[in-house]
Amino acid sequence: MNIKEPFVITISREVGSGGHTISSILAQKLDVRYCDKQLLESLEKQFGLSASGIEKLKGEKKNWLADFLNRVSPMPSAKALGLDPKYSQEFRLNVTTDDIFKAEVDILKDFAQLGSCVVAGRSGFYVFRDHPNKLNVSITASLPYRIQRVMKKQNLSEESAVALIKSIDKARENYIKRYTGVSRYDSRNYDLVLSADGHTEEEMANFILSYILR
């Protein structure tokens, strides 16, 4: 990957691995835009996030995503967006998971066109598989490590943490397999696979950075 040209770094991560924080730190170190679940959820609430709705916006305004990002913070709250929760909830009833996936792919590609960026999750390794200047990273961790982190961060019992991890792992794998036809656990999807065990998020971000700058 050439950092002198527009690039995309995708970070796939297991829940409890610290991958979300690692992605954010890396984006800050590289001084590039950061796209994660919170940003996409904000767009979902603002625009309904249906494939047809996003296409309509793109047709009306060429730089709709850039304008949105300039108006709000990277992770805007519903209050900041001036949303009516009741309307948003009712609107979402008409949006399918197919709509969401198609719209997310569209948004991610538009996001990358704004310049270099780090994308956390959202099947980024698949969405940008044909991007000419990309790095796909997977952050993993042992189950005991993940359990302890989830217990601490979400104030859960060990039993509840295990149940949550298993539930999220299964849901993410099913979702990715459905829309990409591959397993998120297949190391061939990535250029770099790292274990977070025994390392801080800062150390992990620095390792990825050193790999990029090598």
What does this structure look like?
By secondary structure, the protein is α/β, with parallel strands linked by helices. The protein has a single domain, classed as 3-Layer(aba) Sandwich (Rossmann fold). Helix content is 57%, strand content 11%. Helix 3 runs parallel beside helix 7. The longest helix has 23 residues, at 158-180. It is globular.
How many angstroms does the end-to-end distance come to?
Answer: 10 Å
Oligomer: single chain
Number of E-state strands: 5
* CATH fold-level label: Rossmann fold
CATH superfamily: P-loop containing nucleotide triphosphate hydrolases
Low-confidence stretches: 73-94
Round the Cα radius of gyration to an integer and report it. 17 Å
Give average pLDDT, whole number.
79
Task: Give the count of helical stretches.
Answer: 11
> Helical percent range?
55-70%
Sheet with the most strands, sense and barrel status: 5 strands, parallel
Estimate the global geometry from the Cα principal axes. Answer: globular
The topology string of helices and strands comes to EHEHHHHHHEHEHHEH
Strand order of the largest sheet: 2-3-1-4-5
Number of structural units classed as domains: 1
- Going by CATH, the architecture would be 3-Layer(aba) Sandwich
CATH class: Alpha Beta
- Class per helix and strand makeup: alpha/beta
